[in-house]
Each structure stands twice: as structure tokens, then as C-alpha cells.
Design a protein that fits this description.
This protein has 137 residues and is mostly helical. The protein has a domain of 69 residues. Helices cover 41% and strands 0% of the residues. The protein has 3 helices and no strands. Helix 1 runs antiparallel to helix 2 and helix 2 crosses helix 3. It is flat, with a radius of gyration of 28 Å. The N and C termini lie far apart (60 Å).
Length: 137
């Protein structure tokens, strides 16, 4: 049994081949350019905390986030990651690991501030230890 390669009997087959047969062609157009307008560079945001940026760029971008500046072990890991190129997988893996470390740092910071969180942290540690102890066989 031979497979037919003629699909002309299928309604709409090959509509994208001839622009005159495309249903959206009358509506398709290139948006007009704004004449005499040049994109303006945003004003440089003041740098009040340490900003990490790629080694492939000459400086920091005009606008950047400052909500979580690098600090602690996770900050040290991020600084090490930004010494590598963005094309290096180690750069991204170190940033992912730093995110996980930052979560643990946040949990420990919460445990220092709240007695309820301290009890929950001890409970989680107990469950992890019990799981390890039961699975070690």
C-alpha cells in the first residue's frame, strides 16, 4: 500500500504557501516606525547595596533590584558564581544552590526571632533525623 503525498484534496492544505490564500494577509502589516523618536536611556538608579552583574557586561544596568542584597553563605556563593561566564553551567548551578542555601538561612533567621518557629524547626530536624535513621538499613 503506497502512501499518497498529494494532499490537495484537504481543505486549506498549503494555505501558508501562497500569501494570497492566507486568511490573515489583508490584516498583516508592519507597524509604522515612530519618526524622529529615539529611545532614551533610563536614569541610572543609585547604588546603595552590592549589585552582582555578569562579567560579560561592562557595568550594571540602569535599573536593578535591591530587595535581597547578597549576604551570608548564599551571598558568598553568588559572588563566586558571578566570576564565571553566563554560558558556563557552573554559574547557573551555583546560583541555584545559593537559592537553596538562602532558604535555609531564612529559616534559621526566623527561628532566632520566634519561639514558635524554633519549635517547628526542631520538629522538622527531628523528622529528617528519624527518616534518615529508619532508612539507613
Amino acid at each position: 500500500m503506497a502512501i499518497s503525498t498529494d494532499h490537495s484534496n484537504i481543505l486549506g492544505w498549503g494555505a501558508d504557501l501562497d500569501p494570497a490564500r492566507r486568511p490573515a494577509v489583508p490584516m498583516e502589516h508592519t507597524p509604522p516606525r515612530l519618526q524622529g523618536r529615539r529611545p532614551t536611556q533610563p536614569v541610572q538608579q543609585p547604588q546603595t547595596v552590592e549589585i552582582l552583574h555578569s562579567i560579560e557586561r561592562p557595568g550594571i544596568t540602569p535599573v536593578f533590584g535591591t530587595s535581597v542584597p547578597p549576604r551570608g553563605l548564599s551571598g558568598w556563593m553568588r559572588r563566586r558564581a558571578f566570576r564565571r561566564s553566563e554560558s558556563d553551567v557552573r554559574h547557573w548551578m551555583m546560583l541555584l544552590a545559593a537559592d537553596r542555601v538562602n532558604v535555609v538561612e531564612g529559616l534559621l533567621a526566623d527561628a532566632r526571632k520566634s519561639p514558635g518557629a524554633r519549635a517547628a524547626l526542631v520538629g522538622v530536624a527531628g523528622v529528617l533525623f528519624a527518616t534518615w535513621w529508619l532508612r539507613r538499613r
